[in-house]
């Protein structure tokens, strides 16, 4: 199961650097997670300062 980023995202980029499979990319207006690449490790969840990332 992949994770997703909600519209609460403030586009700070904190999640990008911790993703081990580079599944997170800059979107418009907030970041997005590619469900095909996401391995459900959850590293991004802990890194998000506004809790905008959750399991699908």
Task: List the SSEs and their pairings.
Blueprint: E1 3-5, H1 14-18, E2 24-25, E3 32-33, H2 43-47, E4 53-55
Antiparallel strand pairs: 1-4, 2-3
Could you explain the architecture of this structure?
Helix content is 18%, strand content 18%. It is built from two helices and four strands, in the order E-H-E-E-H-E. 21% of the residues are buried. The protein has one domain (3-55): Alpha-Beta Plaits, CATH 3.30.70.20. The chain starts with a strand and ends with a strand. Strand 2 (24-25) and strand 3 form a beta hairpin.
How much β-strand is present in the residues? Answer: 15-25%
State the domain count.
1
Helix content: 10-25%
Shape: globular
Distance between the first and last residues' Cα: 7 Å
Along the chain, the helix and strand elements come as: EHEEHE
What's the average pLDDT?
Answer: 95
For the sheet with most strands, the description reads: 2 strands, antiparallel
Would you tell me which CATH topology applies? Alpha-Beta Plaits
DSSP summary: helix tally? 2
The CATH top-level class label: Alpha Beta
Poorly predicted sequence stretches spanning 5 or more consecutive residues:
none
- The radius of gyration is 10 Å
| Helix/strand class | alpha+beta
Physical arrangement of strands within the biggest beta sheet: 1-4
* CATH architectural group: 2-Layer Sandwich
* Total beta-strand segments: 4
């Amino acid at each position: 199961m992949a994770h997703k980023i909600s519209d609460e995202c403030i586009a700070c980029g904190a999640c990008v650097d911790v993703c081990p499979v580079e599944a997170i990319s800059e979107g418009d207006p907030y970041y997005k997670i590619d469900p095909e690449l996401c391995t459900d490790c959850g590293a991004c969840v802990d890194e998000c300062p506004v809790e905008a990332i959750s399991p699908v």
